[in-house]
Design goal:
The chain is an alpha/beta fold. Helix content is 49%, strand content 11%. Strands 2-1-3-4-5 form a five-stranded mixed sheet, sandwiched between helices. Helix 11 packs across helix 12. The chain is globular, with a radius of gyration of 21 Å. The structure holds zinc ion (ZN).
């Protein structure tokens, strides 16, 4: 009994800030509710994504009880953002933005372009489900971009790469030899793809345009650096 008292007292004294830490973490681990989503302005959604990527690159990703989040989102989801990213295994949006169950919608396709299906998914994410921001997330050293630069002809990949033609069309003679080993050229195409894809959304979707015009939605382009984990914002 004495031993038990001593242990309890010792633990309480050894971790005087334990309650503070738990409270801070539980706040970050709180799932997005309809009210919390509604109270998040579009610019705040982008600011949040910037902040959480900084947390990720600082090695301070939050450790949450995922099963508790599963239970808390079982009957409803209210994500604050939607992200379109590449399938690249080094760029999982939920990890680089330190997000978890119920936080963000995520569509992934090699080369992070959009088509009718993905635009429809983004319309659902925002107009129907209330997300306040869309991020088109490109990345450096992208295999899909490199394949497009090299004009790869292989199975269905060739058709997929056609979606990157608008970005390829931004190249000019000053960019040097069109080859996937030309790193600056590949980076230029990847950034152009992120920017053009972002710009195309309001042109291709009256629903998204209406939300942007009403200041209920922000659409941004960003690039993830696979060597550092850092996300740089293009717009
Ligand atoms: Zn990629």
């Amino acid at each position: 009994m004495i031993t038990r008292r001593l242990v309890c007292g010792c633990l309480a004294g050894a971790f005087p800030f334990a309650n503070t830490v738990v409270q801070a973490q539980s706040l970050e681990c709180a799932v997005f509710t309809p009210d919390r989503q509604k109270a998040t302005a579009p610019d705040e959604a982008i600011s949040r994504l910037k902040a959480v990527n900084e947390r990720f690159t600082a090695g301070k990703s939050t450790n949450c009880d995922l099963m508790a989040q599963v239970r808390e989102t079982a009957n409803n989801q209210s994500p604050f953002a939607a992200i379109v990213g590449c399938i690249d295994s080094r760029v999982p949006p939920e990890l680089v933005f330190d997000q978890r169950i119920g936080d963000v919608f995520c569509a992934r396709v090699a080369g992070n372009f959009v088509n009718t299906d993905i635009i429809g998914s983004l319309e659902y994410s925002t107009k129907v489900a209330g997300a306040k921001a869309i991020v088109i997330l490109g990345h450096n050293f992208c295999g899909a971009i490199k394949s497009a630069v090299d004009d790869v002809k292989l199975g269905n990949i060739a058709a997929l790469l056609q979606n990157l033609q608008p970005a390829l069309a931004t190249l000019n003679n000053s960019d040097g030899h069109r080859d996937s080993h030309n790193d600056p050229l590949v980076q230029k195409v990847a950034e152009a793809n992120a920017r053009l894809t972002t710009a195309s959304l309001t042109n291709r979707s009256p629903i998204l345009k209406e939300l942007v015009d009403a200041k209920q939605l922000t659409i941004a382009a960003a690039m993830h650096d696979i060597t550092t984990g850092k996300v740089t914002w293009l717009s």
